[in-house]
């Protein structure tokens, strides 16, 4: 077989040799196989006691999962499909509305055509009136309030209902059940219970009022006036009067009054700070070009979101969304709308109240049974019906911790006040109690754990490292250049404050250099 194979693999052999060698190889293998099978003895099986026992023993130790492996393939597909369908059904309407926004995927001319406006002259008076009727004012809608539900919760939340019932029963025991000799102590007890009932309702109202102040804080983040172009003329209009299609001018330090689509840029440094929405302190460079169709509206560099700051450059933009339709408006609505469900502390209080009420009802039943079965028969003049009612009220009042809701509300309000002094605004007291149960808090560094503020501590001119506070002529020139070669400016409303407390527009680096330029005044200029 080896010779035939060698002939088959040799490159200089002819076709006949190859055919012969391959034929021989096949014939040789077949003959070998046939011969081997012919020499093997015929197989046979002889049953014996040992073979039977051994086979039974083997079968006895076979695990069922080995012979019948479980199959979960069909079930897992169903579970995955149902889970995905459930997740898709939970997608928020706001997220779907953002996905439908395509302003960032259209060119500036297409956006202007869609909004019936002009990229140079802005809206005319007729178009502005039509847009006002269609889109309304550029204001955030106040949160919806169900006053009837709120009043019921104010008065009857917690132990309020029990306190009111107890107070009314004590007053009834004074008169008319107490006639002809009414006991003044019953009246006093009833008045005290009703006063505690009203005091608890007041504290519930104060808690809700404090949380409702968040909306005012959010509205204060929107500028009051905006430079715009209408009918081809420059004008300054109120931010609440802006409508989609308005052409507004944006410069360094301005806060955007609405969601805009950038249509022109006068500087390559045209950038915005979105940290108020995203928490990211790094400025985003604005672009005029349209994004791809699969890009995200919230991450687009051609869209300026309401409430964000311009930290560099200047340009123009078309208003594409106002009021509640902006991203800022959607976030404001989510933060102001009441949340469904109860907090962990509220669930614990409800569980505690239910346990107390059950124990109280059991004791009240025991008192009534003892009075009706024993005291009423053997001592009929000792406890009459009015005194029995007062005793029952005393029993459940002794079980009710009337000061618990007030104490909890007071503690949470004090904590919220301390957090507010540290510039942490809580929209409700439930957030305070939830934060108290946090063991690990994950947060970014810049702008959260730090202030995102820089200051010049030293600088280098050539190979020399200089002290910014040194009063030399060269230092003074460097400080003046820091003011001139800088796009940052002071906020006019903060010029009366000390230098370190003034508000400066621009990124953190420009602010530090600009503030350094004013640390040395003209009076500090050396003579030499």
Write up what this structure looks like:
By secondary structure, the protein is an alpha+beta fold. The protein folds into four domains: 38 residues, no CATH class; 167 residues, Calcium-transporting ATPase, cytoplasmic transduction domain A (Distorted Sandwich), CATH 2.70.150.10; 128 residues, no CATH class; 66 residues, no CATH class. Helix 10 runs antiparallel to helix 16, helix 11 packs parallel to helix 17 and helix 15 packs antiparallel against helix 16. The radius of gyration is 42 Å and the shape is elongated. The protein has 21 helices and eleven strands. 51% of the residues lie in helices and 9% in strands. The strands form three sheets. It has a six-stranded antiparallel beta sheet, with helices on one face. A three-stranded antiparallel beta sheet has the order 6-5-8, with no helix packed on it. Strand 1 and strand 2 form a beta hairpin.
């Amino acid at each position: 077989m080896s010779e035939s194979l060698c002939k088959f693999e040799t490159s200089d052999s002819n076709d006949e040799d190859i055919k012969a060698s391959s034929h021989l190889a096949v014939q040789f293998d077949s003959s070998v196989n046939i011969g081997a099978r012919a020499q093997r003895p015929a197989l046979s099986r002889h049953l014996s006691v040992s073979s039977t026992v051994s086979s039974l023993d083997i079968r006895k130790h076979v695990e069922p999962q080995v012979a019948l492996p479980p199959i979960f393939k069909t079930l897992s597909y169903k579970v995955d499909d149902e889970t995905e369908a459930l997740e898709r059904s939970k997608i928020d309407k706001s997220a779907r509305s953002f996905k439908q926004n395509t302003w960032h995927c259209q060119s500036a001319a297409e956006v202007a055509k869609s909004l019936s406006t002009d990229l140079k002259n802005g809206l005319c008076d007729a178009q502005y009136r039509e847009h006002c009727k269609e889109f309304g004012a550029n204001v955030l809608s106040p949160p919806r309030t169900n006053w009837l539900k709120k009043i019921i919760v104010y008065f009857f939340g917690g132990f309020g209902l029990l306190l009111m019932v107890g107070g009314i029963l004590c007053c009834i025991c004074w008169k008319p059940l107490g006639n002809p000799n009414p006991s003044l102590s019953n009246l006093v007890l009833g008045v005290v219970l009703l006063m505690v009932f009203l005091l608890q309702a007041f504290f519930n109202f104060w808690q809700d009022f404090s949380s409702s102040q968040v909306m005012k804080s959010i509205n204060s983040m929107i500028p009051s006036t905006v430079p715009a172009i209408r009918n081809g003329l420059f004008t300054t209009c109120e931010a609440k009067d802006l409508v989609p299609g308005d052409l507004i001018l944006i410069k360094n330090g301005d806060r955007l009054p609405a969601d805009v689509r950038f249509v022109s840029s006068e500087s390559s440094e045209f950038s915005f700070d979105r940290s108020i929405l995203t928490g990211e302190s790094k400025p985003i460079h604005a672009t005029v070009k349209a994004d791809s169709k699969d890009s995200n509206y919230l991450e687009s560099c051609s869209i300026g979101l309401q409430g964000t700051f311009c930290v560099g450059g200047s340009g123009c933009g078309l208003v594409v969304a106002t009021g509640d339709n902006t991203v800022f408006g959607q976030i404001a609505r989510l933060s102001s709308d009441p949340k469904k469900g109860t907090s962990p502390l509220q669930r614990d209080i409800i569980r505690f109240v239910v346990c107390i009420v059950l124990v109280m009802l059991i004791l009240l039943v025991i008192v009534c049974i003892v009075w009706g079965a024993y005291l009423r028969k053997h001592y009929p003049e000792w406890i009459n019906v009015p005194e029995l009612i007062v005793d029952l009220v005393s029993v459940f009042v002794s079980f009710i911790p009337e000061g618990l809701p007030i104490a909890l509300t007071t503690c949470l309000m004090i904590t919220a006040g301390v957090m507010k002094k540290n510039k942490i605004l809580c929209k409700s007291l439930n957030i305070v109690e939830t934060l108290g149960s946090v063991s690990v808090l994950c947060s970014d560094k810049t702008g959260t754990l730090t202030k995102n503020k820089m200051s010049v501590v030293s600088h280098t001119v050539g190979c020399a490292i200089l002290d910014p506070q040194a009063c030399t002529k060269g230092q003074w020139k460097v400080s003046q250049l820091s003011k001139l070669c800088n796009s940052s400016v002071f906020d006019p409303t903060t010029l009366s404050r000390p230098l370190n407390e003034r508000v400066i527009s621009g990124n953190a680096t420009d602010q530090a250099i600009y503030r350094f330029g004013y640390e040395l005044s003209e009076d500090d200029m050396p003579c030499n």
